[in-house]
Amino acid sequence: MTSETSPVAAVKRPFYGWVVVAAATLIxxxxxxxxxxxFSVVIDPILAETGLSRTLLSALxxxxxxxxxxxxxxxxxxxxxxxxRRMLIIVALLFGxxxxxxxxxxxxxxxxxxxxxLRALGQGSLPVIATLLAVQWxxxxxxxxxxxxxxxxxxxxxxxxxxTQALTSAFGWxxxxxxxxxxxxxxxxxxxxxxxxxxxxxxxFPDGAAEPPAIEQSADTDSAAPGAPTLQTLDFWLLALPLxxxxxxxTALVFHQASIFAxxxxxxAVSAGVFIPFSAATAAAALLGGLLVERFGPKRTLLAxxxxxxxxxxxxxxxHTPLSASGYAVLIGAASGMQGVLQxxxxxxxxxxxxxxxxxxSAAMVMISAAALAPLPIxxxxxxxxxxxxxxxxxxxxxxxxxxxxxxxxxxRASRRGEMV
Length: 421
Known about the structure:
The chain has helices at 6-10, 17-30, 36-50, 54-82, 84-103, 107-136, 142-171, 173-194, 234-255, 257-263, 268-273, 275-296, 298-315, 322-351, 356-373, 375-385, 389-406, 412-417. The protein is mainly α. The chain folds into two domains: 14-208, Growth Hormone, Chain: A; 219-415, MFS general substrate transporter like domains (Growth Hormone, Chain: A).
């Protein structure tokens, strides 16, 4: 006969890490009011009401993005000290207040403060916190966990622009941001209730295993001290620059997409329409990228993704029909989706879970800074040459240069592990 305790022993509690991933996905989703795709809906209403020039408003927005880049450094370090959950409470409160502040802004100084708050807390802080939460709970399945979190960004991209547009049309842009503040507080309150900093806090281990991961068995493998790079070290830049190449390229191309398509005889409707296959490819590639990074490691997956990015940029030279434009959008969208997973996984994979906020925050600062500067080189080259082809040629070479950079990245931890997650 079986033991009386065998039915109880057969019951296994679901791993709470997947609940934390759901919370992190919600955090990534609600970052939408601080992202460019939401701001794009209200720019014209703000210009119409305030009478500011588009150039001045763009400068204010760029300044706000610079604040966002700096903020990720602060948030990363504070998260190391206080924990992601406590930091989330602070950021959630300030993010909602920033929405309210923007709704009351009068003139250029008020708009700058509103943009700075929303960009620093939405674009910068929330994605960093979401990543830091998810990576603490997984080692073996970290790739698919981050892939799910990135689906929150894809869903945010799809839903927040039409939602904000509907609110703005019905109530005006100021009231729409008051409503968004309430939505932020509601959803982030749910995320705070669900989030937990580390599996060890509830007596568990990453991936739901019965013991710590083998990679963390030795005394130094989960430490941010020996071997972990900083902004002043070459190792940091050998990985950070290839990771930032994707956001730089995608931001530059999306910013100028309507003009590039017009140069090739395509309408603004086609330029807007390709965001549908772009978003679908981004979501699908994020899921695939999560599996690839678990199987082949971040470095090999990033090398393949940089090649894909170069092919996507090169394909833009052959865009002359709506079908070819959709093909280009699929390539760039796929590279962008995979890049988001790599950005979340790479630092934890090579340098462990402890002290990760400093690394992740520094990497996010580089990525945001690259994205903020991205539209300028293409605009300058186009103005100097009268066309986009020279700029696209140089942009195609950028991923190849990053491949050469990434091949030099050989941290001691990665060497010991054979690059396998």
